[in-house]
Structures are given as structure tokens and as C-alpha cells.
Amino acid sequence: MQLLALRNEFTTFSRRADAKIGLLKDVIERVQKGESVDVKGLLGTGNPEKEREWEQVDGRNRPSGLDESNGPG
Q1: Is the pTM of this model over 0.85?
Q2: Are 63 and 57 in contact (CB under 8 A)?
Q3: Do residues 42 and 23 touch, judged by C-beta distance below 8 A?
Q4: Rounded-to-integer distance, Cα 50 and Cα 8, Å
Q5: How do residues 15-67 score in pLDDT, each as one tens digit?
Q6: What is residue 34's DSSP assignment?
Q7: What is the DSSP-derived secondary structure letter of residue 63?
């Protein structure tokens, strides 16, 4: 049962990470094209909720039982 919960937590974490990576790619692409982009606004800088989401994705709040080298058992 605990393994199932960990797998679900990892799946949620992975989906959020994929969404954030997609957003970063989009922002980078637009900047490279020379578009005027509100990078801070799009990435949520200054928005505590959005900054917390980024912290979760960058690994500072990695799901319990996971480390940088592996996923759920």
C-alpha cells in the first residue's frame, strides 16, 4: 500500500515537473525569437504559490522516499 502511494506521488511529481519544463522551454524559445516576454510573470516570480511549485519541481521538496538517482521502487 505504501509503495502504491509513493508511485502515485512520484507520478504527480513527474507531471508537474514536465509541465514546468514545458513552460521553461516555451519561455526560452520566445526570448530567443526576440519576443517581448514577461519572464517573471510567466514563471511566477514574486507569487508565493508559484514559487512553492517551482521549489517542488527543482527538488528542494522532493517526494518522500525519493532521491536524485531513482524513482519509486
Answers
A1: no
A2: no
A3: yes
A4: 22
A5: 988 998 999 999 999 999 999 999 988 888 888 888 888 887 776 555 455 45
A6: T
A7: P
